[in-house]
Amino acid sequence: MRLRDVLLPNQPRLPWRRLVLASLGVAVIVGVLGLLDETVDLLPLFVGFAPSCLLVFVLPEAPVSQPPAVIGGQLVASLVGVAGAFVLPVTWWSIALVAGCSVGAMAVLRIIHPPAIANTVLAFVTGAGWMFLLVPVLAASMAIVAVALVWHRCTGTRYPAPGLLGGPPPRRRTTG
Known about the structure:
By secondary structure, the protein is mainly alpha-helical. Helices cover 65% and strands 0% of the residues. α4 runs antiparallel to α5.
């Protein structure tokens, strides 16, 4: 492997229309999240959910962007963080432990959503209570998915992706 292979982008180039619409979609949902509850500190809210917005709007066909992964992954990962805060001290090893446990839980449940690890750590280090699971986690996750469903419908993008956990399988053509 050459250094250039590691440092240079190797992702496929997305069409400009899709990039512009995805960027606008992220801006819309981040604005909606900001309006959800003005009593919530916005920095942790955006740290935990802005990456989810990127996935759902830029890569709507990815398994990690599907509604069950977004909502379920955020909820399970945050649950691990909240539960961990009740039984573990906040140290470097306990943060690593809850992060690893949240990944394991999401993987076992087949709802992997990488941005959710941020909420695991956030819930753990802040000692968030059980209400954290409802607001902001469930509320924000559902808002992201709801806006994405409407946005992608209006822009002609298929979401949830057909054939994945988040969407119906494609119809089979019958011959004869």
